[in-house]
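Support request, please re-run this one:
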Amino acid sequence: MKKVVITVLGQDRPGIIARISKGLFHQDCNIENVSQTILQSEFSGIFIVSVPEDLSPDGLRDRLEKELEGLDIQVYIKASAAGDMPNISGSGEPFVITTKGPDRKGLVATITEVIARYEANVTNMQAVFKGGDDPDRNIMIYEVTIPADTDMKALDAELRQKATALGLEISIQHRNIFSAINRI
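Re-run finished. Output below.
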């Protein structure tokens, strides 16, 4: 079996995942990983799927589009390069960086630029921007993998300097500490 990456986008409604998984099952495919979310009213899903060798991406896309007919959902399929590339997100230590403060253009670009400069990889990111200047209503959470040889003092200092310039509070914690502190 070969692997493909399937991206599905469209207006959220009940039954999208049921239809996708039914279409995949009927084509003898196996879902290996899924990341799905709803942003405002938009559905977004990414699936890593094992497919039979004789099933073409176009054939699979046609089948999924048929299953999703009438829902105005977009389906994109590409061959997975997972076997050809190193697992970047797995090399290093997991950290959680959170920022809190007023919403403005450039927040994500500024923080992620610093993260990238230190060869750290953003593995998950969430934003809750409710607008306005109430800092308690605008929170960003960046899950990152930081290489073991990173100068953590320099990274911390640069992130704090950028956060201050943007009027943000920032927290940088190892994921284990973040999880322990935020356990419900």
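The domain at 2-79 is CATH 3.30.70.260 (Alpha-Beta Plaits). Residues 55 and 162 are 49 Å apart (CA to CA).
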